[in-house]
Design brief:
The protein has 164 residues and is an all-alpha fold. It has one domain: Ferritin, core subunit, four-helix bundle (Ferritin, Up-down Bundle), CATH 1.20.1260. The protein has helices at residues 4-33, 37-63, 83-110, 114-144, 148-158. The radius of gyration is 17 Å and the shape is elongated. The structure holds MU-OXO-diiron. The site of MU-OXO-diiron (FEO) has 7 residues, from α1, α2 and α3.
């Protein structure tokens, strides 16, 4: 049986992951409206990933006898700016997620909860990938400047992203 403290913290992370999904879906909506279907596809894939992260924690908590409590998901901003600004927001958000996962891991260590430490290892590794993905796209967007044809090439490439 998981401790109440650990269960509550993991439940909050379920909400954080689902609110991340909602944020990325809102960014996808902006890219759809801006006629950048590849960027929109990337964000919709990210939405699905975040949902799967939330469900991974949801199912783990259920397996350990914990209770997930769903909270309100904040309304995302109506606009996120240029593609470069959007991905800078993504990176800043992912760094917050990384910090939250690390805090969960520290709590699991303090609680001597070895099963949760083991489960969180996957998330620690995933966050390395999440930050790297955003950093790579930021670098590419910075390199192409305001050249629309290069932006469309990047849009095409992002449209090839597979989920998972
Ligand atoms: Fe689930 Fe992007 O962290």
């Amino acid at each position: 049986m998981i401790t109440d403290k650990m269960a509550k913290a993991l439940s909050e992370q379920v909400n954080f992951e689902l609110s991340s999904a909602y944020l990325y879906l809102a960014m996808g909506a902006q890219f759809e409206a801006d006629n950048l279907p590849g960027f929109a596809h990337w964000m919709k894939a990210q939405y699905q990933e975040e949902t799967s992260h939330g469900m991974k924690l949801f199912n783990y908590l259920a397996d350990r006898g914990g209770r997930v409590t769903l909270n309100t998901i904040a309304k995302p901003a109506p606009e996120f700016g240029t593609p470069l600004e959007v991905f800078k927001t993504v990176l800043a958000h992912e760094r917050k997620v990384t910090a939250a996962i690390h805090a969960l891991y520290e709590l699991a260590m303090a609680e001597k909860d070895y099963a949760t430490q083991s489960h969180l290892q996957w998330f620690i590794n995933e966050q390395v990938e999440e930050e790297k993905n955003a950093e790579d796209i930021i670098r590419q967007l910075e390199a192409l400047g305001d050249k629309r044809h290069l932006l469309m090439m990047l849009d095409h490439r992002l449209g090839e992203r597979k989920v998972g």
